[in-house]
What we know:
The chain is an alpha+beta fold.
Amino acid sequence: MCLAIPVQIKSIEDQVAKCKVGEGETYLDASLMLLADEVEIGDYLIVHAGFALRKLDPKEAEETLKILRDMVELTEAERNKACNA
């Protein structure tokens, strides 16, 4: 099973977007050739297997990223609780 997360476009060259993943320093290249929407630097995308599937509304992207951050925090809290028990 794969989980697609929002990525933000940082640069575009020849139908390939360099995108930032999350809040760290991880980047990926995403082909824009299957995307119907016009995109620009700063836009958010959903990417799977190296292809941009769709452009995301910034609000939707931020809400999704917040949910993912909350899930990570809960998982870490549960792990810490189990280790300290």
